[in-house]
Design brief:
By secondary structure, this protein is of the alpha/beta class. It has a seven-stranded mixed sheet with strand order 1-3-2-4-5-6-7, with helices on both faces. Helix 4 packs antiparallel against helix 8. 39% of the residues are buried. Keywords: Hydrolase.
């Protein structure tokens, strides 16, 4: 029998509140789902029943396999009753996964939130070059390289020490082969304007203007242009891991941009 942590599963970072809209968080490269915690007590847990995806540390599934597993988890959740509103929120790597789910199973959610999605990774030449080196580094050098990535992943001056430690711990929890595999997945990821135009749900593309890892602001502009019901929100001075920043409040962003209203679900176009 498999250990629970060796399977894809949803964790609950706050008290279950099934009467509230469901908020499904798809994490970044770490795959832990733990890094949403800093947002829980900023109003998010008062508005949503929150579920965070956790991916096994040693999982080497393809995009299609990951998508199938998460879709299966969601359908299992809805076996008895589907919540009136389902928000799908993908950050970085999870943003790519959210887009895959939006195309493959649009009936499973009503609103989509994309936070610095890594859907533009393929166009970054320096990341392509650096990512090819990841798998060849000796383990001690790889461990040091993880620490060296911190300034690219986050605006450290905007993040409390405890959140910095959480970010480093989450990054170090991913074994080198898994990290290399997930980077390879990002290199392969591609979604053209025709596919994006099939997404009919309201979409909020949140992007950091000082993202040193990816051109997130430009990608948010592209997504807002290609997806019919999308709009972008720019976070000035924020880095890639913006949800860890003290001054970033995801609940307030959703509220300020009218993303907390609950209209009847839109029928998705297949």
């Amino acid at each position: 029998m498999h250990n629970f942590n060796e399977r894809f599963h949803f964790s609950t970072p706050s008290t279950l509140q099934p009467d509230l809209p469901l908020f499904v968080y798809l994490p970044g490269m770490d795959g832990t789902g733990e890094l949403l915690r800093s947002q829980i007590n900023k109003g998010l847990s008062n508005a949503f029943n929150i579920q965070c995806l956790a991916m096994p540390a040693h999982d080497l599934s393809s995009w299609d396999q990951i998508t199938e597993k998460v879709v299966g988890l969601l359908r299992s959740q809805f076996r008895r009753t589907r919540p009136d509103m389902v928000y799908l929120c993908g950050e970085s790597f999870g943003g790519c996964l959210a887009l895959k789910i939006a195309i493959d199973a649009p009936e499973l959610f009503d609103r989509l939130i994309l936070i610095n999605p890594a859907s533009c990774f393929m166009g970054q030449a320096w990341l392509h070059f650096g990512s090819h080196l990841t798998g060849w580094l000796p383990p001690p050098i790889y461990a040091l390289s993880v620490m060296g990535l911190l300034p690219f992943l986050a605006s450290l001056g905007r993040i409390a020490r405890s959140e910095r430690n959480d970010l480093l711990a989450a990054m170090q929890s991913v074994p080198q082969p898994t990290s290399t595999w997930r980077v390879n997945l990002l290199r392969e990821f591609e979604m053209d304007s025709h596919e994006l135009s099939r997404i009919r749900q309201p979409v909020l593309a949140i992007a950091s203007t000082d993202d040193r890892l990816l051109p997130s602001a430009a990608e948010a502009t592209r997504l807002a242009y290609c997806i019919p019901n999308a709009k972008q929100v720019l976070l000035p001075n924020s880095g890639h891991a913006c949800l860890l920043e003290t001054d970033v409040n995801l609940y307030k962003l959703l509220k300020d941009h009218d993303f907390l209203t609950h209209p009847k679900p839109i029928s998705a176009v297949a």
